[in-house]
Amino acid sequence: MGLKTSTKPFEERIAAAAADKFATASIAQSQDAQYVKREGARSELGHWQEWRKIGQSIRQHAINYLPDYLEEFSDHVDQRGGSVFFAQTPAEANTYILNILKEQESRHVVKSKSMVTSELDLDQKIQALPDTTVLETDLAEFILQEDDWDEPSHIVFPALHKNRDQVKAEFEKIGYVGDNDPEKLARFARHYLRERFLEADVGITGCNFAIADNGMINLNTNEGNADLVDSIPETQIVVMGMERIVPSMKEAEIMDNLLARSAVGQRLTTYVTFAGPKAQDEADGPTNFHVVILDNNRSEALGTEFQEILQCIRCGACLNVCPVYRHLGGHGYGSLYPGPVGAVLSPILGGYEQFGELPFASSLCGACTETCPVLIPLHPLLIKHREVETDRLKMMHGFKDTQMKIVGKATASPFLFKMGLQFKHFGMQAFTKHQTPTALNFFAYQGAMIKNGPGLIKGWTDVRDLPQPPKHKDDFRVWFEHHQANQGGATK
Amino acid sequence: MKVALFTSCMLDLMFPKVGQDMVDVLERLGCTIQVPSDQICCGQPTYNSGYVEASWPVLHNQIDAFADVDCDYIVSPVGSCTGILKEYPTLLEDDPTDPDGYYMKQAKILAAKTYEFSQFIWRVLGIADCGAQLDGVATYHRSCHMTRILGERETPFWLLEHVNGLEMRPLNGLQYCCGFGGTFSVKEPSISQLMVTEKVENIEKTGAEILVSCDPGCLMNIGGRFNRLGKPIKIMHLAEVLNTNVDPSRIRKVSEVPAPTPAPAEVDLS
Fold this sequence. Notes:
The structure holds two protein chains of two kinds.
Chain A: H1 10-19, H2 21-45, H3 48-64, H4 66-79, E1 83-87, H5 90-103, E2 108-111, H6 115-120, H7 122-127, E3 133-136, H8 139-146, H9 164-172, H10 182-199, E4 202-205, E5 209-211, E6 217-221, H11 225-229, E7 235-241, E8 245-246, H12 249-264, E9 271-275, E10 288-294, H13 317-321, H14 323-333, H15 339-350, H16 352-355, H17 367-371, H18 378-392, H19 401-410, H20 414-427, E11 432-434, E12 439-440, E13 448-450, H21 457-461, E14 466-467, H22 476-486
Parallel strand pairs in A: 1-10, 2-3, 2-4, 4-7, 5-8, 7-10
Antiparallel strand pairs in A: 5-6, 6-9, 11-13, 13-14
Chain B: E1 2-5, H1 9-14, H2 16-28, E2 32-34, H3 44-47, H4 56-67, E3 73-76, H5 79-91, H6 102-112, E4 114-116, H7 117-124, E5 127-129, E6 133-141, H8 144-149, H9 155-160, E7 164-169, H10 184-187, H11 189-206, E8 210-213, H12 216-229, E9 233-237, H13 238-242, E10 252-253
Parallel strand pairs in B: 1-2, 1-3, 3-4, 6-7, 6-8, 8-9
Antiparallel strand pairs in B: 5-10
């Protein structure tokens, strides 16, 4: 479906996520397991905070000089006998790619995992060609394809929301016989995919990092499928976001290290490949090599307060620590890019009209910012989005504007605030119910609790009780005045 | 030692007893307390909601309220507000209403002498044992902003270690937000509900009867959810714990007690 993965309203997606107990348990288990692996791999490397700063400086440097590095990269791809196409929009990219398929009279396209081709909705476009099939070869993406192109729910673990029984059911449709043992399921997929690799005439891959000074494509996988995609077919098409560039192999080595440790808690992924067109002294590789570099509004972030999001290396660590992702899952966000990075990136790529809710879907707990291997200030960028939507675009997104402005006035004026302190108790009187509370030690009068509050309080009392605020005579400041007077103490 | 309390709107509006206990504890440890009367709020409710223009006067008021106060330190019972006050100099970089940099200059002075309650006691006063006695089983909720913005992960655990009679149980999922998030809790109740419900479940699994935290907002959220579900819990701010059944003769400095147990890792790494 491209960037936007759902047409349902946000509240419906939240309700669906809340109802999917399997996915919730699966995400929680994965987050907790990843925590141990990730932090273990990082502490093994040592000096993690310093490595993050190096990662940040490499990525910031590349983004600051993006036009220069893209040109350098493009020149080197040309020199190797490949060609580069700069696509401003998904439509331009798709037209270019589909033309290659038509020119090559391609019958069988194999793909390795690429988020950018999902942005393009490329699989569906290829499917629509009369004589061409397309096959996702990353195991998780393959599972999603077999489930009628289900949407990915994580940028590193796309089928995180599926259990082994669901996978077994999908595989039975294409001939699997056996139980739900993941090892047997994987062996079946491996055998099935191997035959398709051998008959493929075009391979499409993503790109973890493009190396500016030699024109090579750096790919990190654990399954080896990308290596088959980029070495068997005669034609290879690499599709990458325009920001995915590093100056040289030296920087790629560092970034691969940060990526593998952050994404999957490994020192490196099992396969770390540097690919390009077949060289004269090589036995394998494509003779026909294309790189499609996509903008798709990424350049909108350049030179703005959002530029730092282009540093992202798609490790997914911010999803793996996010308490909101933990409960919403990938589908809840309604964007190809979920989690904290998605909540920052999606409004830039797809606009506030489509994704304006996402920056508000965060408690700003800061876990994302704390884990990001390239020091992207993720939760401050969420606040920046909120500022753009609220102060500049006046979109509000469900906040009660007048009430929030009163909050602003009351928290800036000692006079108004002190008035508020005097009236808060009786102002809430009408909304209280008396009960024997089970949560003890709230400052509540005879158990006076608000169960169904007005205005801004409503969202609170939809979920939890609110004690009736103290009478003014019981306020801390009033107590403190007496306390000081009793001590014959100093002036306040 | 002269201490000005940064009370926070949360304490002023909802938690008067926390303030009283905090004053008692700090006075017992030799501090002279004052409460600057024009202070209100750190500015997070509007700033974090995207009402940034409306937030500058809030920050300015808070800075003005403390600017002329004769004190050595500013101490707050709220980890989150303390963290933000320490970030004022960063936030004010974008402030167009402070052309001559007056508030920036004042913010840096304030930030440098502001501490959260538990870290002030351990790291500034150098007190490890406040002499408190509380019989019961408790667990501690580590709040996000105190941990990640203020950077304080340790002192509440170290102080709780010296409360006589209190058995502390580890809380699974310690690193996950309770779903409070300030205005997030009222803006996104259905997401917040999922988060606070998991937190309630994890607290129940510890078997603790008392939930301790250094952020009243989290206590109000988690406690409010316990109450809505009709489940028993007693919420306590650390100041309330440290002011329970105090025997002043037991007060000990950090230098007089064994090295503290390392504060818990965020999840079990074994």
